[in-house]
Specification:
By secondary structure, the protein is α/β, with parallel strands linked by helices. It is 23% helix and 29% strand. Strands 1, 2, 3, 4, 5, 6 and 17 form a seven-stranded mixed beta sheet that branches. Helix 1 packs parallel to helix 2, helix 1 runs parallel beside helix 6 and helix 4 runs parallel beside helix 5. The radius of gyration is 21 Å and the shape is elongated.
């Protein structure tokens, strides 16, 4: 069966694309390899989405999903491994299925970047986490550290400070990239210590993480901090490798697409964190979804 538009990825960008595509009278199929909603489901609280003063990431994702499916969008579970052109159609192949469509929207998002340290993988779930909202409650009354300098790291540190005895916020530069207001709030928290110009150089552990070795990038001096948990928030890696033969990627693996969301392949669009852009926020993901969907609808109608 030929579907008008297949959206690969059911995060904020993908679900928004489905809403706009369905409202434009097109049939949209969402392909998601995991849980719908994307990384925003891990956010305990959203306060920067216009028109919604406060909402949890989980509820936000639920609302988007319900709106898209109520309009008639279908959601299938599967990881897209290949997209090929055949007789004016696009064939999206997953590990088990094959889907035919007229246009594709890539909304694959990005995954968490790791520190690349020895023992890091072995300690996931035993002191290492990439999601404070998911695992932070396990560290109530204990000592935690957060690595990173953007809004995610700042938000994680502020969230953990609500119930952790002590929170170290470690950043490799002398200033944060994230929201200045949030930085000031963290400075006012008695249980938050900012460790600037520093990187985590070693993980020290038995069965669980026990200490982290932190190196000052200016003086090269090292110190060991006793922590129960380390939350890594040092950026993301796009998941576009499966489409490298179809669309042009930049040196970091992001899909080359401007504000019109058009890729180098005709009838293929990119929306959200997977594409080249300066700002990756909830609002920009939603905007991309709308733009990509309307462009795809126009392409299908030609």
């Amino acid at each position: 069966m030929l579907t008008d538009i297949i959206v690969i990825g059911a995060g904020t960008a993908g679900l928004t694309a489905a809403i706009y595509g369905q409202r434009a009278g097109k049939q949209v199929l969402l392909l998601e390899e995991g849980i719908y909603g994307g990384q925003i489901v891990n956010s305990p609280q959203i306060e920067n989405y216009p028109g919604i003063s406060q909402i949890s990431g989980f509820q936000f994702a639920m609302n988007l999903h319900e709106q898209a499916t109520a309009l008639g969008a279908r959601l299938e579970t599967g990881k897209a491994v290949e997209i090929i052109e055949h007789d004016n159609e696009k064939i999206v192949r997953t590990e088990n299925e094959e889907y035919h469509c007229s246009a594709v929207i890539l909304a694959t998002g990005a995954k968490n970047r790791k520190l690349g340290l020895e023992k890091e993988d072995a300690l996931i779930g035993r002191g290492i986490s990439y999601c404070a909202a998911c695992d932070g409650a396990f560290y109530k009354g204990r000592v935690a550290a957060v690595v990173g300098g953007g809004n995610t790291a700042l938000g994680d540190a502020e969230y953990l400070a609500n119930f952790c005895k002590q929170v170290y916020l470690i950043h490799r530069r002398d200033a944060f990239r994230g929201d200045a207001g949030q930085v000031e709030r963290l400075k006012d928290r008695e249980n938050v210590t900012l460790v600037l110009n520093s990187v985590v150089s070693e993980l020290i552990a038995g069965q669980r993480l026990e200490q982290i070795q932190v190196q000052d990038v200016v003086t090269q001096e090292e110190q060991q901090l006793s922590v129960d948990g380390l939350f890594v928030a040092v950026g993301q890696v796009p998941e576009n490798q499966a489409f490298a033969g179809l669309v042009e990627l930049d040196s970091q693996g992001y899909i080359k697409a401007g504000e019109d969301c058009r890729t180098s392949a005709e009838g293929v669009y990119a929306a959200g964190d997977c594409r080249t852009k300066n700002i990756r926020q909830l609002t920009t993901a939603a905007a991309d979804g709308a733009v990509a969907a309307l462009a795809a609808c126009e392409y299908v109608s030609q």
